[in-house]
Amino acid sequence: MSMRLRAITLLLIILGSTAAAVTPAVAEAEKTVSFASAEDSYVSQAGPGKTHHTVTWLSVCTTPCDGAAASERGAFVRFDVKDVPANAVNVTMTLDVQSVRTTDTTLEVRPVKGEWTADTLTFDNRPALGEVITTHKGLTAGGTVKLDVSSAFTGSGTYDFALTSPSGAHGVLHSSRATSGQGPKLTIGYDTEAATPAPGGPLPFAMPSTATLRASERKVFAHYFTPYPISLNNRAGADDYYTKHYLTPTGESNKHIAYGGLLRDRPIPRGVLSGDWQLADMKQEIETAVEAGLDGFTVDVLSLTSAHWDRLNTLIKAADAVDPGFKIVLMPDMTSLKTDAATLAAAMAKLATAKSVYRLPDRRLVISPFKAEGQSAAWWTNFMKIMKDTHGITVAFVPVFLNFPSNAAAFAPISYGFSNWGNRSPAGQSGIASNIAKAHELKKIWMQPVSVQDERPNQGIYDEANNTENLRVTWEKSISGGADWIQLTTWNDFSEGTQFAPSVHNGGAYMDISSYYLTWWKTGKAPAITRDTLYLTHRTQFAAARPTSGTQTKFMLPRSGTNTPRDTVEVLSFLTRAATVKASIGGVEKTYAGQAGLQAKTFPLAYGANKASVGAVTVTSPWQVKKDFTVQDLQYHAVSSGRK
C-alpha cells in the first residue's frame, strides 16, 4: 500500500471512531423558575422625547393608534435570569403579559439589540430590535397571554424584549408597577442533563445539546458548494473521480496539467455504496454538520438545471429526512446564474416548499444571493415583488457582497441583513467590527464570514493564513463585534482550499476548533476545557519552494494584501491546567510552558516529521515536510490528538 493510501486509511479510522464514543446523557426531573421584570416601560411616537417609567401600564399599538397619525407605541421589558444550570436541556421560556382591556391587538415579541434603561427610554432613543420571535393575536381584559420565547434562551443572564404591534387596536398591558393585576413575568422550564464525559469524543470541552445550541438567536451556517460532494461517481477512494481526475495533474485529459491538478485535498474517501448513494452521502454530510453544532448550510445555487440543481434538491431531501431543524439557506450565485427575475423566483419558490429550507419565525423566506451586486437593487426589488405577488412568499433578503461598503446604502431599503464574502488572511480582518457596526447602524443583521485558508492552483493565488490564526481571528472578532449570524466559508469548496468539512488533509480538525468557538458565541462564554487536546498544523513544503520534478508550470503566488508568507509549525493547545508541552519539529525536540485554556505556539518549519505531546496526550502528523516534491501545495494540513 502506498504512503498516500496509508494516510487516507488512517484518517478514515480517525473519523470513524468518533460516532460510537458518545455516552447517553441521563435526564433529571423538570424544573421551573420564574422572574418578575427588572425594568419595563413603553415609548410613544406621539411624545417622542417623553419617558413612561412611572406609569402602571404598558402600551402597544401600530400607527395610526386611536385614530391619530404618527402614534406608534411599543413596550420594553427586562428580566435578570439566574440559577439556570449550564447543563439545562429541553428548555422552554415563556413571557407572560396580562391585558388591561379586551382588544384585537396583535402582539409581536422581538429581542432588543441595544442598550436602554426604563428611566431614560423614549421613542427617539429607543434601541434597535431583532427579528420577531413569536406573535399572538387578541387580548382579553384580565387575561394572561403566554408568549413562547424559547428560541431566545442562551442561559442565565439578562434578557431584553420589546412588544410591538403590526395591526389591531391599542393594546394596554399591566406594568410591574400595576396596583392590581400582574406585571410581565418570564418563566423558564428545563430538565438537567449530565454532561457528556470528556474522554468520550474528539473535543476538548463538553458540547451542549443540539436543542441548547439551536435555542440561540445566533445562527451558524456553512457554505455548501455542490461541485464537491463526498463522492462524484461512487467508486472506492483509490479509483474515484477525485483521485483519477482532480488530484492528478494529467486528469481530465491533461486539462489541469499546468497547475499540477485541480485540487490539493478531497473529502474522506469511502467504499462503494448500494442504493441511492448520493442521498446517503448528503445525509452523512448533514449528520456531520449537526454533530459539529451547525444550524444549517448556505447552499450555492450555481444552476437551475444540471447536476448542481439535482444535488441541491438531494441535499434538501436529505435534510428533511435527517433533521428538518437543520436549515438550508438558498444562495443564488450571481456569478453563474444568468436568468431573469421571474425564472429565479419560480425556482426559489419551488424549493421553498421543503420543511428544511430556512424561514424566519415570521415565515419570511431567507434568500441570500452570492455577489448580490451582480444585479441592481431595483432588479432584486422586482424579484421579491414576484415572489410575493406570484408565489405568495415574503422574502427576508440577506445579500452577500464582494464589496459591502459600496453597496450597503443602495441595498439597505430592501434588505433584512447583510454579509460579505470576506478575506482568508489575518491581515484582511481589520474591518470586521466596522462592518458589523455599519449593518447594525442600518438596523440590519450581519452574517460574518469565518474562514480557515484559501489556495487556488488553477488561479495561481493563495492567502497566507498563518496556520490557524486566520480561523481564530475571524471567530474572535465575530464574537467581540456582535455578529448575528456566521457563515463558514466554506464547507467543501476544495477548488479554493477553504474546506471545514472532514478531509484527507484536515481530518475534521478545523470543524472541531469551530465547534469550540460557536459554543462560545452561542452561549456567551468560552467553554470550560475538560480534556487536554492538541492540534498540529503545518505545510508539507516551504512557501517559496518549487517542485523539483513533475510537469507543473503555473505556480501560486501570494494574493495582494495577504500576510507575508511564513513557514511554521503550530501547536494549538486546549489544556485543563498549565503543563509542559513537548514538540518534535523535523526530529528536533522542543519544550515549552503550556498555559491553561487555549494557546498557540509556533516553531520554524523543518524537513521531516512533526509531533507534539502533553502528558499522555500525543498528536503525530502523518504528513512529512519534504524538499523534493512534484506539485506545489500551500495549504496547511491539520491533525488532532482527539481524533484517534
UniProtKB/TrEMBL annotation:
The keyword Signal applies. Keywords: Secreted, Signal. Residues 1-21 form the signal peptide. InterPro entries: CBM96 (IPR055372), Glyco_hydro_71 (IPR005197). The keyword Signal applies. It is found in: Secreted. This is Endo-1,3-alpha-glucanase family glycosylhydrolase. It comes from Nonomuraea roseola. The lineage of its organism: Bacteria, Bacillati, Actinomycetota, Actinomycetes, Streptosporangiales.
